[in-house]
Write a structure and sequence with these properties.
single chain, mainly alpha, 5 helices
Length: 116
């Protein structure tokens, strides 16, 4: 005779409820492990597509710097200085952004998570 045959039906039902939901893994999480070479290629591709990189950051920074230089003084030299500083700062920020995205995608891939 089984132990469960002597228990009221509510106890096994309660045990099943306490075990938690039996749902499949989300579509983004996979149980497979990817190779580091695959993850490197995947992360580089995603980071390149999602980030403007150095050039995109430099263009945006130069544009903003030119506008700030024009508002501050209005002289050509002020606009040129603003554009130069903006390009350097924007380019650096774009490179950092791309590197952060690469690290996110690479380590996620190694953990088995593929971002869409």
């Amino acid at each position: 005779m089984s132990v469960f045959s002597r228990l009221p039906a509510a106890i096994p039902a309660a045990l099943l409820c306490l075990a938690g939901p039996m749902t499949p893994l989300p579509a983004d999480a996979q149980n497979t492990q990817f190779t580091p070479q695959y993850c490197d290629a995947y992360a580089r591709d995603r980071a390149n597509r999602k980030s403007g990189g150095v050039v995109g950051g430099a263009v945006a920074g130069a544009t903003a710097g030119t506008a700030i230089g024009h508002i501050a003084d209005g002289k050509l030299s002020s606009r040129q200085k603003g554009a130069t500083i903006g390009a350097v700062v924007g380019g650096t920020a774009g490179a950092v952004n791309r590197n952060n995205l690469y690290n996110k995608y690479y380590h996620g891939c190694l953990s088995g998570v593929i971002y869409k």
